[in-house]
Write a structure and sequence with these properties.
Blueprint lengths: L1 E8 L17 E8 L3 E7 L8 E8 L4 E8 L5 E5 L6 E10 L2 E2 L6 E4 L3 H68 L32
Antiparallel strand pairs: 1-5, 2-3, 3-6, 4-5, 4-7, 7-8, 7-9
């Protein structure tokens, strides 16, 4: 890639250029970005032209001095214009470059650079818009977090309610079990033990007397 810059005074010095009759001038020449000391010019090339680069002529309005920028071995369709003066009118021409020479000049493009204060104000506006967008995003995130917390609180409350219901039902189950066990036990032995045979008790804890009869 080769780039050449030439600053001349019109009428005093001339720039020798070979014009290629087969090339068409660039079309749709526009300014994409304009600042106080900077601008970007863009253009399109007619389809089929054997273009290998471009050439730009930059001139202040009502001033003979101009700047000539040429760049070859590139397919780019934009060029940065730097070191401009604020609140100044400029005229720009674009040419296509081929192996045989350059195309005719494009239609002149006129633009005016703004003041530095206006550029700063536009930057501040962009910053405020970005801050507003960031605030909206944060508000949306907070809403989502609040909704999730409410859902979790509802789940926890439901769980506690079910736990209380289960806990309240446990004493009733214990009572039913105790009632069933008492129905299966004997009257004398509530624990369900076996009845022991009853024997007559002798007074004074004596053994029963035995009489022997001889035949």
């Amino acid at each position: 890639m080769e780039r050449f810059f030439l600053l001349v005074l019109s009428g005093c010095l001339g720039v020798s250029r070979v014009t290629a009759d087969s090339l068409s001038p660039p079309v749709n020449v526009t300014i994409k970005e304009v600042k106080a000391n900077f601008a970007v010019v863009a253009w399109d090339i007619p389809e089929g032209d054997p273009v290998i680069g471009f050439a730009i002529t930059q001139q202040k309005k009502d001033v003979r001095m101009l700047r000539f920028i040429q760049e070859v071995n590139t397919t780019t369709r934009t060029c940065a214009l730097w070191d401009l003066e604020e609140e100044t009118d400029y005229i720009v021409h674009v040419q296509s470059v081929s192996m045989s020479g350059t195309s005719p000049l494009s239609e002149p493009l006129r633009f005016r650079t703004p003041r530095e204060a206006e550029t700063q104000a536009s930057k501040n506006e962009v910053t405020m818009e970005e801050v507003g967008q960031a605030t909206q995003l944060r508000a949306g995130e907070l809403i989502i977090i609040v909704v999730v917390l409410i859902m979790w609180a509802g789940v926890i409350a439901l769980f506690c309610r079910q736990y209380d219901i289960i806990k309240d039902n446990e004493p009733n189950n214990n009572k039913d079990k105790a009632k069933n066990s008492s129905e299966c036990s004997t009257p004398e032995h509530p624990t369900g033990g076996l009845l022991r045979s009853k024997f007559p008790k002798n007074n004074n804890n004596r053994l029963p007397s035995v009489n022997i009869i001889e035949v």
